[in-house]
């Protein structure tokens, strides 16, 4: 009996120690803003007023040499799993509803690792990492709760997603259309007409309101739908942007104003609950801005879906009241794959089996917080080998040098014929400044001296081109088939009461 009593006391002791250790760890609030361009926040000189974002950026650590992938799903997979998308078969396509693929189940996630260390984990907003089976959805990938949508984009008010046409082998094509909004796994059917940005802000506030400050720290993955197309915002936010003369950018401004207001409300609540000082805030885009939808990457070259800087150099900063070095520009190389090890090891102080998960990311927390040299010497920006009539695309940055080979933008054949992904410099009015035409499929830039990629120096530095191509070939040796399965007719929401639902379970 005495032995049993000692065992119970020992278990209680270790429970209290574990609980105390968890309680001393910082909360982590990660904002992922969809399609935010380099020139879309006023702390960078934009014409769009973003006072709350500006406040935390100016007080925090601004990541000036931070890279993401060229489109959303690849970046989100890199953030969540700490691996280059091409290592997971996700370098090419956006993961849209009805397509049977997603973040592979043999990959860990930030949420799964933090959950092991006693964190409460919550995903709010856009998922975009697979929904064909329940196992690919957030509450099966380490998150305690989910409030949001699965697809890459949807209507901000109706929360419905139309899928691309499916050819049925006869004269008729079918376009699927369904509700995509969930509270955990339950469809949300009573929010038609309510703006998603406000819904997601309220959901984040509810998580914070319910949080027990004496027990466990939280990780909130706040992936706003904004500022991705379609261009939609309540008129009151657009009215705050009347000084902007361009219609698309004026609506885009209204969308971002709603996000800025949401972040203000969330951080004020954290302050009121005495949680802000023990919260690390991470703010990042998922790719460059889509200029035809009102965004701006000026003066960087290119836009979303290109591997020019305008498509892959990301707006990002980190804020924490207790960080020793604040209010500075960090110019060390950092990539989206670095968030998993940085959050798990660096911020949460947890052990991480990097060999087991074959991570491409590094723990750059010392780099961020002290401006010390980054362990990262190179970034594989993209690797998408040739297929069918696509000649392939690769881009890498090593030190100050950046090499692009193959197709630099999202066009296969129409680089200089009005393609929606121009390879030049896009002004606020939407006009495009194109470079002189060249048939070259090799571009070399010195990003330190030419950050806007105006001078291709590949011919002047053939040895540098050779060295960087060798590194691309090194990565290509571990390349796997990239996934992009067609839309499955069995996914039709009509079979599931008009709701996009995992259909292969």
Give the overall average pLDDT: 91
How would you write the strand order of the largest sheet?
A: 9-8-5-4-10-1-11-12-2-13
Strand runs, count: 20
Helix count equals 12
Strand content: 15-25%
Give the low-confidence spans: 4-20, 412-418
Outline the structure in words:
The chain has twelve helices and 20 strands. It has 505 residues and is an alpha/beta fold. A ten-stranded mixed sheet has the order 9-8-5-4-10-1-11-12-2-13, sandwiched between helices. It has a four-stranded antiparallel sheet with strand order 15-16-17-20, with helices on one face. A hairpin with a 2-residue loop joins strand 16 and strand 17.
The gist of it:
This protein is 26% helix and 19% strand. The protein has helices spanning 2-24, 51-59, 72-81, 110-116, 196-210, 235-238, 247-272, 309-312, 339-347, 354-357, 365-370, 462-476; strands spanning 27-33, 61-63, 66-67, 120-126, 145-149, 160-167, 173-179, 182-183, 186-187, 218-224, 279-285, 316-319, 328-330, 334-335, 378-384, 393-398, 401-406, 425-426, 432-433, 442-446.
């Amino acid at each position: 009996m005495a032995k049993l009593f000692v065992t119970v006391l020992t278990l209680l002791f270790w429970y209290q120690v574990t609980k105390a250790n968890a309680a001393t760890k910082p909360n982590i609030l990660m904002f992922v803003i969809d399609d935010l361009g380099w020139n879309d926040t006023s702390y960078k000189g934009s014409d769009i007023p973003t006072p709350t974002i500006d406040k935390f950026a100016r007080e925090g650590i601004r990541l000036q040499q931070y890279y993401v992938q060229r489109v959303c799903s690849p970046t989100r997979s890199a953030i969540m799993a700490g691996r280059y998308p091409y290592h997971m078969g996700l370098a090419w396509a956006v993961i849209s509803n009805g397509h049977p693929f997603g973040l592979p189940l043999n990959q860990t996630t930030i949420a799964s690792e933090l959950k092991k260390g006693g964190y409460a984990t919550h995903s709010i907003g856009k998922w975009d990492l697979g929904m064909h089976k329940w196992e690919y959805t957030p509450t099966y990938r380490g998150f305690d709760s989910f409030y949001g949508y699965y697809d890459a984009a949807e209507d901000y008010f109706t929360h419905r997603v139309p899928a691309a046409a499916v050819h049925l082998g006869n004269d008729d094509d079918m376009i699927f259309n369904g509700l995509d909004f969930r509270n955990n796994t339950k469809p949300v059917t009573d929010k038609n007409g309510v703006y998603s940005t406000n819904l997601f802000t309220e959901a984040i506030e509810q998580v914070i309101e319910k949080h027990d400050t004496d027990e466990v720290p939280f990780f909130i993955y706040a992936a706003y739908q904004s500022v991705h197309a379609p261009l939609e915002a309540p008129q009151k936010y657009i009215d705050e942007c009347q000084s902007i003369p361009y219609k698309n950018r004026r609506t885009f401004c209204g969308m971002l104003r709603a996000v800025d207001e949401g972040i203000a409300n969330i951080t004020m609540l954290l302050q009121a609950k005495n949680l802000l000082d023990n919260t690390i805030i991470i703010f990042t885009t998922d790719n460059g801005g889509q200029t035809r939808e009102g965004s701006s990457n000026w003066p960087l070259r290119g836009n979303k879906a290109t591997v020019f800087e305008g498509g892959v150099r990301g707006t990002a900063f980190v804020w924490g009241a207790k960080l020793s070095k604040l209010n500075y520009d960090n110019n060390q190389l950092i990539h989206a794959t670095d968030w998993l090890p940085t959050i798990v090891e660096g911020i949460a102080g947890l052990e991480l089996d990097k060999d087991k998960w074959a991570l491409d990311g590094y723990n750059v927390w010392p780099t961020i917080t002290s401006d010390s040299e980054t362990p990262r010497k190179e970034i594989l920006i993209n690797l998408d080998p040739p297929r069918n009539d696509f000649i392939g695309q690769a881009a890498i940055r090593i030190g100050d040098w950046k090499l692009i080979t193959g197709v630099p933008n999202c066009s296969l054949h129409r680089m200089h014929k009005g393609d929606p992904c121009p390879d030049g410099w896009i002004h606020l009015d939407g006009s495009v400044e194109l470079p002189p035409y060249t048939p070259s499929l090799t571009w070399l830039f010195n990003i330190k001296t030419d950050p806007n990629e105006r001078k291709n120096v590949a011919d002047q530095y053939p040895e540098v081109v050779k060295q960087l191509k060798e590194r691309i070939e090194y990565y290509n040796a571990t390349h796997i088939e990239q996934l992009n399965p067609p839309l499955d007719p069995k996914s039709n929401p009509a079979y599931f009461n008009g709701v996009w639902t995992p259909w292969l379970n």
